[in-house]
């Protein structure tokens, strides 16, 4: 895996940027279950920080997706579909942006979500 040396103010430390990038991509395919596993099992602080950032997005969006499905079933199917598609597009875009940033050595925080971890 690619390791990048980044000066973080406390001296240079190697960071596993490839595994940090894969955390964000894994969130797209496996949801927050993979992110929780990586967050708990990782020894690398940079990978753990990226997993926490991804979890901060995927946990609230999972709850929102459930609410949108319920609204779509009970209120208006076209409105539920439109909201669901917009959530999916935002999740894909933000995960790809975060993955690229992680590969470049930056832990990007997803916008508009609370910092839960």
TrEMBL record:
The keyword Membrane applies. The keyword Membrane applies. It is found in: Membrane. Its main location: membrane. It is a multi-pass membrane protein. Keywords: Membrane, Transmembrane, Transmembrane helix. It comes from the Archaea. The chain crosses the membrane at residues 21-42, 54-75, 81-100. Pfam families: MamF_MmsF (PF09685). InterPro entries: MamF_MmsF. This is DUF4870 domain-containing protein. The lineage of its organism: Archaea, Methanobacteriati, Methanobacteriota, Stenosarchaea group, Halobacteria.
